[in-house]
Write a structure and sequence with these properties.
Layout lengths: L1 E6 L2 E9 L4 E8 L7 H4 L6 H12 L5 H9 L6 H8 L8 E5 L6 H4 L9 H7 L10 H4 L12 E5 L5 E5 L8 H15 L7 E5 L6 E7 L6 E5 H4 L6 H14 L5 H15 L10 E5 L5 E4 L23 E4 L2 E5 H7 L7 H20 L9 H19 L6
Antiparallel strand pairs: 1-2, 1-4, 2-3, 5-6, 6-8, 7-8, 9-10, 10-11, 12-13
Length: about 400
């Protein structure tokens, strides 16, 4: 079958797709190289077919465990053909989509930024297991199909027509929604661009469920490019830090070093072990392809020891930084030693643990915290992290 990769109403390239393999087998025409996805365009186009197949696999989460489990359960070797032939491969993080070469449909007819999409099914099952019915065309017509990650999640349209991402939990303590909100509060203090997370309780499921909720920070003119897609993670964390900042500055991103440093500072404060290469990046204008800024901070839920069956305050002595694991707190602090905090910011950070404690108490019944003693331990962990950071600015 012949398909066209589109960027809004802009033709990018035409390709042939063999459903029996299933794989892209031929590029029949390139309309505009400049509008190829960044992941593809920055690399050697001699391997264009391979790169495009890799991009599709990433877009449709072909390599994630839930996708493989679904393929096995439904006795299908690969579901990629069903996904992009029925859902157009639409997303809420960029403006790329795929249509049949013979289809007259336009961007205005199908995009998820201005058109309704299916989501009630995903609230009911997506927040639990992400078990999707790929034979149901209506269910496929959703941005959930191109939303990565193992966590239960779904996109919804609220009463104000905003596109909101709900995320549940999949860790032992189940603190992800609280941690997302905590990260937002700290970003406010640090004056760091961030997705605006809130905590919501859904009462229309089999049981009341706590989720985080945040609106998309992309739109019809702004797309997200992850750090992974930038392709500069080939060395140790110190070199990657320098290369990332240099690239941002070359693209005229203001306060680049401070923003990257603040992201690392946030992760130190909340003991975030999940800042993998898809959890940050940049945003750019999808019309002009101009880089606009670092992406707002998102996906910080897997932090504050939520994944541990036993709360061990000494567990997280090392972090994952860029593509390097096992980086100590002191090494990270040394990396961001030029970062300056104001007295007002220091004062506000000191108040954060009490706010976090109140959140843990308020939403205790929706978590697996189990005891007030564990709330105390988690609060003390946050206090310890903050003290470690601000002692460089004043004696505590």
């Amino acid at each position: 079958m012949d398909f066209i990769l589109m960027n809004k109403n802009h033709k990018v390239l035409e390709f042939s797709y063999d459903e029996s393999i299933p794989m892209i087998t031929n590029i029949t025409q390139i309309y505009d190289k400049n509008y190829l996805p960044y992941y593809i365009n920055k690399q050697d186009n001699k391997n264009l077919i391979k790169l495009l197949n890799n991009w599709l696999a990433m877009r449709f989460q072909k390599h994630t465990s839930w996708f493989k489990k679904l393929a096995k359960t439904t006795h299908q070797v690969n579901l990629l053909d069903a996904i992009f032939t029925k859902s157009y491969g639409l997303s809420l993080t960029d403006e790329y989509w795929i249509k049949s070469a013979y289809d007259k449909v336009k961007w205005e007819d199908v995009n998820f930024y201005s058109n309704d999409f299916q989501y009630k099914h995903f609230i009911e099952v997506g927040l639990e297991s992400r078990k999707y019915d790929y034979d149901n065309v209506d269910v496929l017509y959703s941005p959930d199909i191109t939303t990565g990650g193992e966590l239960g999640k779904c996109w919804v349209i609220d009463a104000n027509k905003k596109r909101i991402l709900y995320k549940s939990t999949n860790t032992f303590l189940g603190l992800e929604p609280i941690n997302e909100y905590l990260a937002s509060l700290i970003c406010e203090i640090l004056e760091l661009p961030h997705a605006n997370y809130s905590i919501q309780i859904l009462s229309n499921l089999s049981k009341k469920t706590m989720v985080s909720a945040c609106p998309t920070f992309c739109n019809e003119n702004i797309e997200l490019i992850s750090f992974y897609e930038l392709g500069i993670h080939n060395s140790n964390y110190r070199d990657d830090f320098k290369k990332y900042i240099k690239l941002l500055e070359e693209k005229e991103i203001s306060d680049a070093k401070a923003k990257v440093s603040k992201m690392l500072l946030l992760d130190l404060i909340i003991s975030n072990h999940d800042r993998h290469l898809g959890n940050y990046g940049i945003i750019r204008d999808s019309n002009t392809l101009k880089w606009l800024d670092v992406a707002p901070i998102y996906d910080s839920g897997r932090s504050m020891l939520t994944y541990l069956p036993t709360i061990d305050l000494n567990y997280d002595n090392e972090l994952f930084v860029f593509n390097t694991s096992g980086v100590s707190h002191q090494e990270v602090l040394a990396l961001i030693s030029d970062l300056v905090l104001t007295p007002k910011q220091i004062k506000a950070l000191k108040e954060i643990p009490q706010i976090y404690k109140s959140l843990l108490e308020k939403y205790k019944e929706y978590t697996n915290i189990q005891s007030d003693e564990n709330i105390k331990l988690l609060t003390n962990k946050l206090i310890k992290n903050i003290q470690e950071i601000i002692k460089k600015y004043e004696k505590i």
